[in-house]
Amino acid sequence: MLVGLFGRPIAPGADGVAVGSTAAPGGTDVVEVRPGEDLRSLAVRVAPGADPVLLAERIADLNGLDGERVAVGSVLVVPTGRE
Fold first, then answer.
1. From which domain of life does this come (predicted)?
2. Which of 8, 14, 62, 65 has its CA 20 to 30 A from that of 33?
């Protein structure tokens, strides 16, 4: 069993990202992919003023993804711009 911040148990999601908290350390949040979203549309949702291409690449890097397609319900780590 994985244990996250504050000793809360967490479990890996279908994409291998740990779920169980609403925020992750280092200026990131955890979000769930909605129906019809790919990484670019997710990037627009989480950071409307950012370059969606660059942010989609960063989200892919953070989650070890190859390509822009993601499954609905996947839980992904996304940058927030906060540190």
1. Bacteria
2. 8
β-strands 28-32, 75-79 pairing: antiparallel
- State whether residue 10 is helix, strand or coil: strand
Buried b (16+ CB within 10 A) or exposed e, 36-74: ebebeebbeebbeeeebeebbbbbbebbebeebebeeeb
Six-digit token string for 2: 């994985």
Q: Which strands form 2-3's sheet, in the order they lie side by side?
A: 2-3, 9-12, 18-19
Please indicate, yes or no, whether the overall pTM of this predicted structure exceeds 0.70. Answer: no
